[in-house]
Design brief:
heterodimer, A: Rossmann fold, 2 domains, B: mainly alpha, about 0% strand, globular
């Protein structure tokens, strides 16, 4: 693990400007502050991670970015455009796609149809087009089907094209969710625990897929993940949340060695010295 | 369990259906002959005891049902296309009208079935495709019916007379004020909407939008009132309703009015889901009925409106007359053909919408609202389209219903009607077009023919005591059939392919989630530090599904 970290440590967190700029984002549920003034800048074409113990506010943070929750305070800008106040579907249209912690595929649709729904926002045909079967309707249906084919190929699920989405093996369902999100042609994709419930082999597959999303499609990736091996080897930049507050950020090796992070995960005593021993078998 | 065992897609062996062309044609001929004979009094008289059997109400209802099953079999069975076409067109365009010539109640029944089939198709979009449980669907039916009835009956003349007598200060000045008000407010609403497209809405802008909306509404009311007053002079000219030539215009108008009411009802309530939506639509459906009851000037309240006119199409009448129909049957025959055309159009629209971006969006919302929105499906807009489309089907059929009955009252649109249409959708198979049409046919036949026929036939049988006579238990028998259906075949008579897949899938789902959890536990061992946490969250995942 140390080997990979060193390799990644030398990688600068991508050039160019930030694609996503989150500033002083706060969410209060009644008296509880779930996310407290978190600032995060995601560089374009990078892979970044948000980590933190359970209940740290990571998913709330994602839900604010995607418009499911309205932030109490703060701003979210995608490529300079303010997103606060937009509905989730408008955020998607603006260029942020997401997957869910507990897989949310459309259970009565095939894999292909699932992806075609993802393509919906980019299609031009209207109600009237559909009823009259105009040329625009046929063009957009063709486009949706083509997008589905490309995306299924991209994530390697072509053989499941006509299978009901929820009949796919667990790991493939996760991949399909990513494909569906990618079909919206996002600038940024948010992955909420993509490796949850995966075995090591599936996780390796997923890691390769995420890299290809960035390298081949040029989509910036931001993920929440508990699998530390995945996070440390994959991400170029890490933000750590605990109790809704950002406690650390930086390159993977910096975060790894940050006492504040160890404390958050293991408690004060363990962070002081027990840490290395506990992990020794690895 | 190191590697998830690859699940192969289940191989679906297509069932080899036997070719039933001969059976189909044979069945068609036999049932057609039976139907025609049972409606020919001359032949029946000569048949003796066999005629008595055929005259039995239950047998008669069965003959009609068997005959209508023709169309179903033509759809279901594997047969040559010419046979299917022959049976379909033959039964609907030749045999049925021919039998209807002898017995108009048959035409009436067919129109009723098709009206309900259209209603079921409309509700199917709302409930079956978009997954929005609407218990007040009959409201849209009422809107369509009243739109035509008020104008095509003496009611309109009376409304004009009333405004003539109570004009107050209303005049052309009011019309001008109304026009200006409507134009200004509509303009500002469009402007604010455009503004919202660019900047995030604020509380103030939302309030001003609402205010402009109220202004627009009052502007329209002023315009309407002044037009009624200005035209009150011609009250006598429309004493028995407007020119029947307007029928075609009103066909379009009833669609639009119902769709508009659908949007107006939908706007405030579609933020709600599931049970809450069901309750509030139930309430709003009743509100429309109560409005019809209380707006006495326009709807004649509980007395109902009568007589309601219908279109007169001279060339059609002469055509039908040449075929041997009596003049009093012209209008039923006209409505029969019209309803056949309308339902064909509705079916076409349904199928086309289902295989489109909007159909996929509806199903996505039904499957998972949050995921659908995250994939860029605008929830409110998509749900409103579903509501408006469903409503417009009900609207056009409401108008035809009013023209057929020539009498409507608020009681024609009570809650039971909404429930009946819903039961058709559920019985037939939610989301399946052929299913809901079959559901409509079965329920209508049960309610109008089979159960009353059973009652009538058993009423005079001496050995059945009055207390258990089926004639008194129509609703009970109908209810029992529904319950039995739901227990034995919950997916409906002709289930939607997707639904079936979903139902079958649920059996596998259990294994899947267990599988998922197991591999989750396994992965837990590999997690860098927060291993326990992952397992916990995974349990949550399994449970959520």
């Amino acid at each position: 693990m140390i080997k990979t970290t060193t390799r990644l440590g030398t990688t600068a967190p991508a050039s160019g400007g930030s694609i996503l700029e989150v500033d002083a984002l706060t969410k209060e549920f009644g008296g509880l502050t779930a996310v407290n003034s978190v600032t995060m800048h995601v560089p374009e074409r990078s892979i970044v991670s948000v980590i933190g113990p359970n209940g740290a506010g990571k998913t709330t943070f994602f839900n604010m970015i995607t418009g499911i929750y309205a932030p109490t305070r703060g701003s979210i800008k995608l490529a300079g455009r303010e997103l606060v106040g937009l509905r989730p579907d408008q955020v998607t249209e603006a260029g942020i796609a997401r997957t869910f912690q507990n897989i949310r595929l459309f259970s009565s649709m095939t894999s292909e149809e699932n992806i075609m729904v993802g393509r919906n926002t980019r299609l031009k045909s209207t109600f009237v087009d559909a009823v009259l079967r105009t040329r625009r309707f046929h063009e957009s249906e063709h486009e949706a089907r083509e997008a589905a084919r490309l995306m299924l190929d991209f994530v390697g699920l072509s053989q499941w094209r006509n299978e009901i989405a929820t009949n796919l093996p667990y790991g493939d369902q996760r991949k399909l969710e990513i494909a569906r999100a990618l079909a919206t042609t996002p600038k940024l994709i948010l992955l909420d625990e993509p490796a949850a419930g995966m075995n090591p082999r599936e996780t390796e597959d997923l890691k390769a897929l995420i890299r290809r999303v960035r390298d081949e499609l040029g989509v910036t990736v931001c993920l929440i993940e508990h699998d530390m091996r995945l996070v440390m080897t994959l991400s170029e930049y890490i933000t750590v949340l605990d109790y809704g507050t950002k406690i650390s950020e930086g390159l993977p090796h910096q975060v790894r060695n940050d006492p504040a992070v160890m404390e958050a995960y293991l408690g004060r005593g363990a962070a002081a010295g027990e840490y290395g021993k506990e992990e020794a078998p690895k | 369990m190191t590697v998830a065992s690859p699940v192969k897609p289940a191989v679906r062996r297509p069932l080899v259906k036997p070719d039933r062309t001969i059976w189909l044609v044979l069945f068609f001929i036999v049932t057609s002959v039976l139907l025609l004979i049972s409606h020919e009094t001359d032949i029946m008289r000569n048949l003796g005891p066999l005629g008595d059997v055929l005259r039995n109400k239950v047998v008669e209802a069965l003959v009609v049902s068997l005959f209508l099953a023709n169309v179903l079999f033509a759809y279901l069975w594997k047969a040559a296309n010419w046979a299917k076409l022959l049976v379909g067109i033959g039964s609907l365009l030749f045999v049925l009208p021919l039998a209807g010539q002898a017995d108009t109640s048959l035409l009436d029944l067919s129109i009723q079935i098709m009206i309900f089939a259209a209603l079921a198709l409309g509700l199917n979009i709302v409930v079956g495709l978009a997954g929005l449980l609407d218990l007040g669907y009959v409201a849209f039916f009422a809107v369509g019916a009243y739109t035509w009835s008020i104008f095509a009956s003496p009611r309109f003349g009376e409304v004009l007379k009333y405004y003539g007598e109570n004009s107050g200060t209303t005049g052309s000045g009011t019309l001008a004020i109304g026009l200006v008000l409507a134009a200004v407010t509509a303009g500002s609403m469009i402007y604010i909407r455009g503004l919202h497209g660019r900047v995030a809405p604020t509380r103030l802008s939302n309030l001003s939008f609402l205010l402009a909306g109220f202004g627009l509404l009052s502007g329209i009311i002023l315009i309407g009132r002044s037009i009624l007053v200005l035209f009150s002079g011609s009250a006598d000219a429309v004493a028995s309703g407007i020119n029947p030539g307007f029928f075609w215009l009103f066909l379009a108008l009833s669609v639009m009015t119902a769709a508009l009411v659908g949007v107006l009802i939908g706007l405030p309530v579609l933020k709600l889901k599931g049970d809450y939506l069901a309750i509030i639509t139930l309430g709003l459906g009743e509100v429309i009925r109560v409005l019809a009851n209380n707006l006495g000037l326009y709807t004649a309240g509980s007395q109902g409106i009568t007589p309601i006119g219908t279109a007169s199409v001279p060339w059609f009448n002469s055509l039908v007359g040449a075929l041997g129909f009596r003049p009093d049957q012209y209008y039923l025959m006209f409505l029969y053909v019209l309803v056949l055309i309308v339902i064909a159009v509705i079916l076409l629209v349904n199928v086309r919408l289902d295989n489109s971006r909007i159909g996929r969006a509806w199903i996505a919302i039904r499957d998972d609202e949050i995921a659908a929105q995250a994939m860029g499906v605008p929830l409110m807009q998509t749900k409103l389209i579903a509501f408006a489309t469903g409503a417009s089907f009900a609207g056009v059929m409401g108008m035809i219903f009013a023209a057929k009955q020539t009498f409507i009252s608020p009681e024609s649109f009570n809650l039971l009607q909404s429930i009946t249409v819903l039961s058709m959708v559920v019985l037939g198979g939610m989301g399946s077009f052929s299913g809901v049409i079959l559901g409509a046919a079965v329920v209508t036949l049960l309610n109008l023919r089979i159960l009353p026929g059973l009652g009538e036939a058993s009423a005079n049988v001496s050995w059945i005591p009055q207390e258990v006579n089926p004639a008194n238990f129509n609703r009970f028998i109908f209810g029992s059939i529904l319950v039995a259906m739901m227990l034995l075949r919950p997916e409906g008579l002709l289930p939607n392919k997707r639904r079936t897949r979903e139902l079958h899938h649920e059996d596998d789902q259990e294994d899947e989630s267990v599988d998922g959890n197991a591999s989750g536990l396994n992965a837990g061992g590999d997690v860098y530090s927060a291993g326990l946490a992952t397992t916990k969250e995974d349990d949550k995942t399994g449970g959520d599904r």
